């Protein structure tokens, strides 16, 4: 799939932002800092103790937040799995890499799809490889399960995990025992277990992560730990069975909390806590239609699949002792699109030569500057549905996801002041025509630019 | 209003529970511990940083929670102001003291009412007076504004505050400037300012509280600091004007947060932090119909005036360095009705000789035992609407409060598992007939007992 790289450069919009960086001579003998991204699946904004859940106990994440910074206005790039991951790993709205419905056949990739994240895309792993990071992906990939799309083709030295969602390959009826889900567990590009024993996935991912940390006491590393859980069907190991007041979903989140504690502990034991930035977040909001088996978006409206806040605003905790201020709650605007430029700044590595939609957030994480971001566009598949600028959010289109209904167009858009009204209850469009006008202009400009993007799969049959 | 005290004794029900205590000889020279209850007005379950609000900053309350225990299943006695305060101060469901609609003319007391909390009721202040506590009430009283009902008639040595809600006596049109609300500010039983300058109420209450702490470095004291805010109309002092991302409501809550910090600091400076139990909570849920001027119940359903969780479950933080475990989140069942028995245990003081609906929670607060409570009844005025036992809650009646609509009766009741479904989304009555049967029996038993309670105002014209 040849790409016209020059084309990208023609797409400079207000959302395509130059990120300052410099690649100096590495005069220091100190290796650059490590990066650990813990990315869980379908966790809601309200599902952690430190984000207000009354009965899910998350002492390790709560402590991580106390020792670091807890962000309250962090967004992911999409409200479902595949595009959210593409956005995080590339620093680009997922429509740029084609990882969105309209360019792929469905909202996410399925086992019968033969496409994946294009090889031309540059991931965080590839950026950090320029500075000789050891790189490992553990867990859910969901950017193509065929050999040519696996993590090892996108900058990761090694991979251990389930390549797509754990509810796919459901070939044996409606039973929820692990054996009835036929998903494969892979090491690099080999299937090592099928069906994967999902009861022990969180535990095995964790052991693999801890081992990776221990194996790299000196060298810089990037660990992308993308848990399969708490995506439905829910599984947890024996030690976490029936321990949570919140029931099965709580058990599963509490095992993830344990896992986070294990990773941080391994960093401390390897004496690399002071030189490791750890970020914890989730790929999209809670799967609300699953009732008690799904999570909670807390005070936010909507969940997975929606462009209401609950679909795309996620818990995010940043931890880096001595660098990220402790005991801080930050309402600064930050997104998963910002991780790649931030990782590049961390490693003092060059950025990819193409339009990016993220900002270097290192000064924000370190408490030295406010966020440089003031705008974010909410997409559903290939379509732009809403835009945020400062505290204001305008919904031009909204579409119920489960079950999918036709999109509803709003003119004038629904307007919410998210900092005064985080639950999107009080449409104030009538009172603020000047804000509506400004957001409309930005939105239309973005829609126009996005419409010109090529479909990476146009030449193939997706 | 003569009372037949014996009558009370005939009303022993399952909700009337003997609380073990002993009044030993005071062989120690140490005074008993101090008690500070900070009780705010209309704050929602989701309105503090440590309960998940994204844009209200509450660093002092967050720190108080880190240094103490944050409760996630704490209930107040009623979903509106007057009965909630009666319940907290007497340890009895407010229908016992007559402080409920049906016994008083409206849902709360108004300036044209000539009744108040009956003198025969025994308050926490009176319990602690038995052990020579210095006692002070600051802020909102709302249990009768005539001289014979003021705090100084109910065990408090002194009083400084506004005797009812700050939106009463609204005699000068629809302007929100303080001068347009004619509420009085009182010292003991004298009006010292009218209209009260509401902009400085939180600040003046705080200074008064700090002064009281400083004046009692040796003696045991009970401080009841019942803030007028964040009840609407919202006011805050100059230093807190336009400082919160959340707007006016946020400014007001952030000033209260500052106030809490001031009180804790005064305790530390007086070297009495180690012998002072401080409890922070609110009287009822957020006033949702006020839109952005009202608070948020977070993930809970409903708000002020309702028997959904959002109306009656509140933030509660307990702080007592060296006694209440630090950095603990507890989902144990505890209510404002338990404060009086807990205060009595703290002071080793005798309990009032009448039915109580509370439990001594001192062992729970100190992390030594689980909560002895497993049941709680949700009332609206004189009516029982719902009951909780363990994680289960059954709604037999529900009634929208703003605007008030007729009660809706449910048979079978709506049944929710609150620990798995804190947002009361998934009625599971059909799946659990045995739970419904058990809760129905307990509920009917309670309704029957409550129906026999006398109206303390039957002989008067309320």
TrEMBL record, chains A, B:
Signal peptide start and end residues: 1-22
Boundaries of every Sulfatase N-terminal domain copy: 33-348
Class of this enzyme: hydrolase
GO MF term (any one): metal ion binding
Keyword Magnesium set for record: no
Keywords: Calcium, Glycoprotein, Hydrolase, Metal-binding, Signal
Cofactors that this protein relies on: Ca(2+)
EC number(s) stated in the UniProt entry for this protein: 3.1.6.1
UniProt xrefs under CDD domains: GALNS_like
Family: Belongs to the sulfatase family.
Full protein name: Arylsulfatase
Organism whose genome encodes this protein: Bythopirellula goksoeyrii
Name of the gene: atsA_16
């Amino acid at each position: 799939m040849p790409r016209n790289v020059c084309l990208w450069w023609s797409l400079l919009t207000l959302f395509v932002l130059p990120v300052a960086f410099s690649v100096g001579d590495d005069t220091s003998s100190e290796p650059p800092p490590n990066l650990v991204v813990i990315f869980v699946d379908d966790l809601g904004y309200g599902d952690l103790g430190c984000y207000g859940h009354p009965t899910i106990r998350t002492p390790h994440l709560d402590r991580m937040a106390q020792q670091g910074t807890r962000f309250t206005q962090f967004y992911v790039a999409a409200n479902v799995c595949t595009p959210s991951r593409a956005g995080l790993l590339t620093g680009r709205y997922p429509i740029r890499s084609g990882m969105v419905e309209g360019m792929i056949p469905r909202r996410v990739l399925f086992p019968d799809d033969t496409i994946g994240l294009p090889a031309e895309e540059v991931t965080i792993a590839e950026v950090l490889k320029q500075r000789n990071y050891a790189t490992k992906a553990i867990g859910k990939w969901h950017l193509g399960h065929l050999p040519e799309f696996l993590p090892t083709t996108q900058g990761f030295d090694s991979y251990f995990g389930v390549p797509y969602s754990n509810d796919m390959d459901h070939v044996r009826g409606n039973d929820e025992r692990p054996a009835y889900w036929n998903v494969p567990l892979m090491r690099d590009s080999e299937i090592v277990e099928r069906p994967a024993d999902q009861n022990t996935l969180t535990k095995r991912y964790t052991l693999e992560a801890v081992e990776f940390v221990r194996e790299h006491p000196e060298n810089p590393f990037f660990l992308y730990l993308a848990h399969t859980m708490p995506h439905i069907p829910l599984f947890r190991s024996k030690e976490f069975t029936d321990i949570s007041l919140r029931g099965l979903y709580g058990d599963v989140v509490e095992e993830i909390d344990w896992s986070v504690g294990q990773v941080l502990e391994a960093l401390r034991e390897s004496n690399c806590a002071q030189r490791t930035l750890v970020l914890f977040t989730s790929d999209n909001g809670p799967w609300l239609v699953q009732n008690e088996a799904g999570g909670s978006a807390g005070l936010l409206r909507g969940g997975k699949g929606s462009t209401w806040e609950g679909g795309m605003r996620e818990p995010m905790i940043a931890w880096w002792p001595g660098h990220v201020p402790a005991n801080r709650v930050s309402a600064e605007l930050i997104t998963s699109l910002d991780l790649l430029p931030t990782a590049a700044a961390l490693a003092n590595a060059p950025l990819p030569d193409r339009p990016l939609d993220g900002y270097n957030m290192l000064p924000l994480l370190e408490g030295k500057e406010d966020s440089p971001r003031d705008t974010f566009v909410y997409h559903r598949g290939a379509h732009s549905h809403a835009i945020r600028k400062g505290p204001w959010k305008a919904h031009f289109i909204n579409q119920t996801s489960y079950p999918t209904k036709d999109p509803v167009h709003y003119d004038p858009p629904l307007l919410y002041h998210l900092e005064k009204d985080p639950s999107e209850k009080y449409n104030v469009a009538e009172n603020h025509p000047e804000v509506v006008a400004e957001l409309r202009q930005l939105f239309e400009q973005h829609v126009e630019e996005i419409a010109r993007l090529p479909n990476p799969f146009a030449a193939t049959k997706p």
